[in-house]
Amino acid sequence: MPTPETIADVPQDFETLKAVILERKAQLPKRLKQVAAYSLDNPDEIAFGTAASIATSADVQPSTLVRFAQHFGFEGFSSLQQIFRARLRERTPGYEERLKALRQNDHSRLESGSIFNGFVAAAHRSLDNIATSVDPEAFERAVGILAKANTIYLIAKRRSYPISSYMAYAFGKLKVKYQHVGTAAGIDEDMLAMATKEDAAFAVSFSPYASESASQARLLANRKVPVVSLTDSAFSPLAESSRVWFELVEADHAGFRSLSASMAFAMALTVAIAEKRRRLAEGE
């Protein structure tokens, strides 16, 4: 059993709790790690769900939730839930009211307009969040790694693919050498075999993670090719393979997640890389 926390050590807010979980995640037993991943990826469900419903969704026993809470110094799971509920109360005022207004639209008359408003609202939330979720120093390190690479390998599948496609287009216009992994010819393995320590990779994957993207990022990392990644959880398989990784959770409307913040991030990263390469070439 872990040594109980003192009252002073018990996390008092969501950000502190998140930092402590990430700090200890490597030492957590398998089931507690499972709960940790679920709680950080689904904080709203932790706030509103019952112990039984959360345990079912996280694929653990309800008693595991209690053990998880006590591991971090809480008396029980309900005490831990208060941290997640406080996080919701600290959100931008009016958010729930705006969603309620959208749900109450006259769908027989304004169905398409309501859907439009919902996606615009989700895009706004995503863009609001990105300003505080991206560490400027980490962004600078990522730009430095990718700007110094001879070739940048772009790795993304499924929902993430539009991000790498945009970057491939922009790199071409900006005269930055790249390889877009994911060819119709099925030669990804041959393409990745050409990567060296002088190159770098940028990988993108969101839950449910593309196993092929995770495998390709791991392959490059094992060969000492630096990897930078964009994902949506500290427990993403991309995080463990990356020199620098960014956690970005997009807002959704009716279960459909936006790519607004991810595309903004990709645009900023692409242009910053090109500008850094220009300065390096000119000896600045």
In CATH terms, what is the architecture of the largest domain? 3-Layer(aba) Sandwich
The largest β sheet comes out as: 5 strands, parallel
- What is the name of the CATH superfamily of the largest domain? Glucose-6-phosphate isomerase like protein, domain 1
Task: Please state the average pLDDT score.
Answer: 85
How far the N terminus sits from the C terminus, by CA atoms, comes to: 55 Å
Put the structure in a nutshell.
The protein is α/β, with parallel strands linked by helices. The chain has helices at residues 14-24, 30-41, 43-48, 51-58, 62-71, 77-89, 95-103, 107-133, 136-147, 161-173, 188-193, 211-222, 260-281, and strands at 152-156, 178-181, 200-204, 227-231, 244-247, 252-253, 256-257.
Description:
- Residues 142-282 form the SIS domain.
- It comes from Rhizobium meliloti.
- Residues 15-91 form the HTH rpiR-type domain.
- Keywords: DNA-binding, Transcription, Transcription regulation.
- This is SIS domain-containing protein.
- The chain is of the alpha/beta class and 284 residues long.
- It folds into 2 domains: 7-89, Winged helix-like DNA-binding domain superfamily/Winged helix DNA-binding domain (Arc Repressor Mutant, subunit A, Orthogonal Bundle), CATH 1.10.10; 133-281, Rossmann fold (3-Layer(aba) Sandwich), CATH 3.40.50.
- Helix content is 57%, strand content 10%.
- It is built from 13 helices and 7 strands.
- The protein has helices at residues 14-24, 30-41, 43-48, 51-58, 62-71, 77-89, 95-103, 107-133, 136-147, 161-173, 188-193, 211-222, 260-281; strands at residues 152-156, 178-181, 200-204, 227-231, 244-247, 252-253, 256-257.
- The strands form 2 sheets. A 5-stranded parallel beta sheet has the order 2-1-3-4-5, sandwiched between helices. A two-stranded antiparallel sheet has the order 6-7.
- Strand 1, helix 10 and strand 2 (178-181) form a beta-alpha-beta unit.
- Helix 10 (161-173) runs parallel beside helix 13.
- The protein is globular and about 60 Å long.
